[in-house]
Design goal:
The complex is a heterodimer. By secondary structure, chain A is of the alpha+beta class. Chain A is built from 6 helices and 5 strands, in the order αββββαβαααα. In chain A, α4 packs across α5. Chain B is of the alpha/beta class. Chain B has a single domain, classed as Vaccinia Virus protein VP39 (Rossmann fold, 3-Layer(aba) Sandwich), CATH 3.40.50.150. Chain B contains 9 helices and 9 strands. Chain B is globular, with a radius of gyration of 17 Å. Classes of the chains: A alpha+beta, B alpha/beta.
Chain lengths: 201, 250
């Protein structure tokens, strides 16, 4: 019950703050999407009406479309806009419409903030936040590159990309060789078992 | 039950059969304006969770027709209306005009309009054709009905085949210690709170007494089966302070 309430609140807030006021959800009106979260072993039913979005745990009858995914993937989707592991069932196009609509929600925080602080302060906060995000991304990238170089060249602890590829190919080749050898041994064993036993002296 | 006698319970007192409707009306006329505040104070806000759970279990969907009998100030109606959308319909029905008026104004103020009808009706003689609703609910109302068996029969009649009745009502507390604390609260604190908030001690004394006179979980389940429901079960909430009975018509 708590999960459905949290989902309902989050979805309606997203629609409320969206630049387009959730127009992208219009094609879903009077439809029901079942969202099966495999890691929580639960299904949420998302109802779309003119009044907004409602979420509940049970539904009489079948949903119009079903999406099978995990909460982890869904949370990642909220950050990246990409739902990596999901299967769509029943009306697949409708399920896709929902995921695309969710991914296209754009919240202009600066605009909403300006109602409380005024345009100037909202712009300054927005500008500071954007600068911080850009710095964070740049620092993250730089730390990653430095760490990679250090491990690969200074410590020689990690293989390079080409080394990994070469190693992978060698493993595949070894696997094929082992399979061939196994087949050869099987064939030889069969030949041996088919030969008549030599008479004992 | 004293349905075959000429008197019936009104809280802990016995009143002539035809008097109960008037007396219940008097109680709810008196509490209508403060009903929501009192519900929050009385239940410490838990009534919202009980109702939310009821809505979740209803499983309704856009396009459904719902009867919210004894709908009072429209807590359930509001949520049902949002879920059934403009293609569905919710009827808020109550015997008490004051409660319906408060509920109607409140819902309209909250932007719920167009798919909700309001009607003043007696639960024992519902003015709807047979097989009308996908879902019927009666939340905290059945205990005030004079002839509960008749009301259940009527609810069964107006449900569509496959439809579901949900009865949310105070019931028998299953935990002995909690039962004692609950009794103390109901008869000593609740009426005083009624006096303090709504300046109406007597009405809240009646509410407490009527809860004790209401059939327990198993009795009500059997009453539903006797009224014609093909299947019935119940779910205790908060250790049985409230029970949600569900009946299905196949």
């Amino acid at each position: 019950m708590i999960l459905s309430q949290v989902f309902e609140f989050a979805l309606n807030q997203a629609v409320r703050l969206d630049e387009q006021q959730g127009q992208v959800f219009q094609p879903l009106n009077d439809k029901v999407i079942a969202l099966q979260l495999n890691d929580l072993n639960t299904t949420l039913y998302i109802l779309f009406t003119d009044y907004g979005i409602s979420v509940q745990n049970t539904l009489q009858g079948e949903a119009d479309a079903k999406i099978e995914t995990t909460l982890t993937d869904l949370l990642a989707f909220a950050q990246t806009g990409l739902l990596k592991h999901a299967t769509y069932q029943t009306d697949e196009a409708l399920a896709e419409t929902f995921v695309n609509a969710l991914g296209s929600v754009e919240i202009d925080w600066e605009e909403h903030l300006s109602h409380y602080t005024g345009d100037l302060i909202a712009f300054k906060i927005g500008h500071a936040a954007r600068s911080m995000m850009q710095s964070k991304t740049a620092v993250k990238q730089q730390i990653g590159d430095t760490l990679k170089e250090y491990l690969q060249f200074e410590l020689n602890a990690l293989p390079t990309h080409s080394q990994v590829q070469r190693f992978g190919k060698q493993v595949l080749q070894t696997q094929k060789d082992v399979e061939a050898l196994e087949n050869r041994i099987d064939a030889l064993s069969q030949q041996l078992s088919q030969q008549p036993a030599s008479p004992s002296k | 039950m004293s349905q075959h006698k000429k008197t019936i319970d009104f809280g802990f007192s016995e009143v002539p059969l035809e008097e109960k409707v008037k007396k219940v009306k008097g109680v709810f006329d008196s509490v209508a304006d403060n009903y929501d505040v009192m519900n929050d104070v009385m239940s410490l806000g838990i009534h919202r969770l009980w109702k939310r759970h009821t809505i979740e279990l209803s499983g309704i969907r856009p396009g459904n027709a719902v009867l919210d009998l004894a709908g009072g100030t429209g807590d359930l109606t509001k949520e049902f209306a949002k879920r059934v959308g403009k293609t569905g319909r919710v009827v808020l029905a109550d015997i008490n005009e004051s409660m319906v008026r408060v509920g109607r104004d409140r819902l309209i103020n909250q932007g719920i309009a167009g798919n909700v009808d309001y009607t003043i009706t007696n639960a024992e003689a519902l003015g709807f054709p047979d097989n009308t609703f996908d879902l019927a609910t009666i939340a905290f109302g059945l205990r005030n009905v004079t002839n509960k068996d008749k009301a259940l029969e009527e609810l069964y009649r107006v449900l569509k085949p496959g439809g579901q009745l949900m009865v949310l009502e105070f019931s028998k507390v299953t935990q002995p210690l909690l039962a004692k604390a609950y009794d103390f609260y109901s008869f000593n604190i609740l009426p005083k709170m009624g006096k303090l908030i709504a300046d109406d001690e007597a009405s809240y004394q009646y509410l407490a007494e009527s809860i004790r006179m209401h059939p327990d979980q198993e009795t009500l389940k059997q009453m539903m089966l006797d009224a014609g429901f093909d299947k019935a079960d119940y779910l205790n909430m908060s250790e049985g302070i409230v029970a949600l009975h569900r009946g299905w018509k196949y």
